[in-house]
Write a structure and sequence with these properties.
About 30% of the residues lie in helices and about 20% in strands. The protein is an alpha+beta fold and about 350 residues long.
Length: about 350
């Protein structure tokens, strides 16, 4: 088995043939990177085997939990801020990382479409270059094996209205739960929505989450962290955020699913308005009216919560789920099928986008 070093700037893949034996795998002592001496078996149990992706504040790895009967997959996220951050910015970044772990612990166990939190821990190791100690932070969460909706559209083209209604309904149910528990996601976008191999939709990446009292009470101000094109005006301006903030981003996500076009293609900056009903697009008047209201620039003019959007969509035919993803996923992130092989437990996957 090959173990991937998680020290920033190293990423060496270290071969350990002895770990191909299941008994050895579960009883082996700590392994160290042959290049930088970074501990490879995190918290004594998690074995990083593949880099899934990197962002502004961290990196995500596919890992095995060697202390489970099926050697289940999990996602290990490492706090790994990039750029030259001052101490205030660094503290903010770390607080967001800690908040993600807290929210996953609070919500994941209680909702089937939010990943569970398995662990959260620090790691203090010596830096061989400086001789000083470095501290890293990790969280471990449930692994969802599937494909995000951004990649689905890239491969299969735009969805039908019925399929988008299904996505919208699933997401409104998730957001009703999230908002009802005093949390605002703040980063709803197609790449954070993933369908597993059974067709269930999951909401991922709570790294920008904001905890508030409940619903619209005591809304929190934004930190300036958002995804361009999906964030509404109040979030981009660093103002207060609301459940309607997530609903705006969900509406933009639906536009992408319907058209295959980005916000930059559908928003008329000169006239400061959305022009998303492009030639050839067939959308019912009801859905168009719902999306248009969700896209209004002022939060108070939108639907106030997910339940009110669901009510506006009632009385229509049952929505149709999007077509199933292919057997070979192009992106993996989250829940897995149990793995029992002791010699080759990692399925072949493409490098995530």
């Amino acid at each position: 088995m090959d173990l991937l070093c998680t020290r920033p700037g190293c990423a060496r893949l270290n071969p350990f043939p002895d770990l191909d034996n299941r008994n050895t795998l579960q009883t082996a002592q700590q392994k160290f990177c042959t290049s930088c001496r970074m501990p490879l078996i995190l918290a004594g149990r998690y074995l990083p085997v593949k880099l899934l992706g990197q962002g502004g504040f961290g990196a995500a790895y596919l890992a095995l939990d060697r202390f489970t009967p099926t050697m289940r997959f999990c996602v290990v996220k490492q706090f790994q801020p990039s750029g030259n951050l001052n101490q205030e910015q660094l503290n903010l970044a770390l607080s967001l990382f800690e908040r993600e772990a807290t929210v996953l612990e609070k919500l994941g166990d209680r909702h089937a479409q939010i990943p569970d939190l398995y662990a959260y821990f620090p790691l203090v190791v010596e830096n061989p270059r400086t001789g000083k100690e470095d501290q890293f932070f990790y969280l471990v969460q449930e692994f969802i094996s599937g494909q995000d909706l951004e990649k689905t559209i890239e491969q299969q083209g735009p969805m039908s209205e019925e399929q988008v209604r299904w996505v919208l309904g699933e997401m409104l149910g998730i957001l009703a739960f999230v908002h009802g528990n005093g949390t605002i996601h703040r980063d709803i976008k197609p790449s954070n929505l993933i369908r597993d191999r059974e067709g269930k939709l999951f909401l991922l990446d709570f790294g920008a989450v904001k905890e508030v009292a409940t619903g619209n009470v005591n809304p929190g101000s934004s930190t300036g962290i958002y995804s361009m094109g999906f964030a509404p005006p109040e979030q981009m301006a660093g103002g207060q955020v609301y459940p309607a903030t997530d609903l705006y981003a969900l509406a933009v996500t639906c536009l992408y699913l319907l058209t295959g076009k980005t916000a930059q293609d559908l928003y008329d900056a000169y006239h400061n308005q959305w022009n998303w009903q492009i030639p050839g697009l067939k959308v019912s008047q009801q859905l168009a009216q719902v999306l248009d209201r969700l896209l209004l620039p002022t939060p108070k003019d939108r639907y106030p919560n997910a339940e009110s959007v669901l009510a506006a969509l009632q009385g229509t035919a049952a929505p149709t789920p999007p077509p199933a993803i292919s057997n070979t996923p192009t992106k993996i992130q989250g829940k897995s099928t149990p793995v029992t092989s002791t010699t080759s437990p990692i399925p072949p996957v493409a490098t995530p986008a």
